[in-house]
Amino acid sequence: MAARLTPALDAPIFAALAPLLRRLPPGRFPRHDELSALATPSVASGGGAPIRFVPPAASVQYETHVFETGEVQTRPDNWHDLFNALVWLAFPRTKAVLNRHHCEEIRARRAERLRGTARDVLTLFDEGGILVAVADAELSSLLREFRWKELFWKRRAEVLRSMRFYVFGHAIYEKALEPYKGVTAKALIVDTAAGLFDAPLGQQLAELDTRAADYFSGAQALASTRTLPPLPILGIPGWEPANAREEYYDDAAQFRPGRSNEPALRK
Questions:
Q1: Distance between CA 135 and CA 236 in Å, rounded?
Q2: Nearest residue to 218 (alpha-carbon basis) of 263, 169, 158
């Protein structure tokens, strides 16, 4: 019997996937053909091949195979792979850019047999990224400077009004099934106009997908694994019931101080 889907999927952390989750068959994992049917013509690999979700195959280089054929190998009844598939559907432009870069790096470093920094950056965001849309530059600064209590508690109302958080990394989604303190995502900050937050969710996601794809198209995005700051996701207002109390943000093991000089994406 296929593993059952969990009611926890209606939590705020799954907001970016909510429209897709509502289209999945109730009470079970989707079949490969059901997932593939959700892909529009615009969902394509870094090489332009239409994306389809297929069972795993032996002796296939994953990223190259996706690039050339559009076939995303997806293990049945597997949360990690299901979330990867759903992120392909929710953020197709960014996934395609990451896929293209992976293949370029594989080809360029074939003789060296080394992954290199660029592929490490790509993997970190692919597995553990989060898109943070911000309509207030001061809030962006607080996040970049790791001033977590000031951001998430003292300016909580402003965060709720002027920030939106959309998980990209499929490993973060998997961890969110049983969230625990210390779950940290790599944050890509997108400075945007406040009006975006009044738009339908699909329009918000399309805008962020385009902006993230543009960011990762540039060579500077792949220069260092430290470019994007860590974000303790259970500190985001409303993502953890316990963070409704001020003392929650006094936990230095979860909300660590630090510095980061990553770029923001300007509107």
A1: 16
A2: 263
